Amino acid sequence: MAKKELVRCSWCLKDEIYKRYHDEVWGVPEHDDRRLFAKLILDGAQAGLSWYTILIRTESYAKAYHNWDPKKIAKYGEKDIERLMNDAGIIRNRSKIMASIGNAQAYLKIMEDGPGSFDRFLWKHVGGKTIVNKGKGVPVSSPESDAMSKDLKKNGFKFVGTTIVYAFMQACGMVDDHSVTCWRRTG
After folding, report:
1. Among 113, 117, 122, 123, which is least packed, fewest CB within 10 Å?
2. What CATH number should be reported for the domain holding residue 134?
3. Are strands 131-132 and 175-176 parallel, antiparallel or unpaired?
4. Which residues of the chain have pLDDT under 70?
5. What's the pLDDT tens digit per position in 19-74?
6. β-sheet bridge partners, residue 176
């Protein structure tokens, strides 16, 4: 008997890397503070590029950024910036690298002075639960991503425009934009 192929969203059919990302990560509700921080930095790095460009570099990013330790990243100086600018495993864009350092500092401030949880800070914008989109097509932003983007910027984050934030919300399961026939769709 032949193994039945799962029906997936059409965007992920390019190769096994995309399929694995779709099946195991994209749209799965994420509540771990450090993983949320990492995903936000990766989505910011993606600005102007395809997501696949970042996806194939996620392990290199984790290694280059001390396994996403925000306390270490927040202290990066010129030597670290030059190290990252010379790391072929990541996107070597000075503005994005500088933003990742500033974002680590902003993250730590939220952890110290805010709700004490990046998870609570972010998920409040969707009422703490996944929004299942019922419309036709996949939007590039929403009122929730507009509000989250504004809140992140107010708290010192960079590379967090509403389109980037919406993609982040999809990746973290804050919104479910799986196609209606996809096995991962929740509603």
Report:
1. 113
2. 1.10.340.30
3. parallel
4. 1-4, 135
5. 999 999 999 999 999 999 999 999 999 999 999 999 999 999 999 999 999 999 99
6. 132
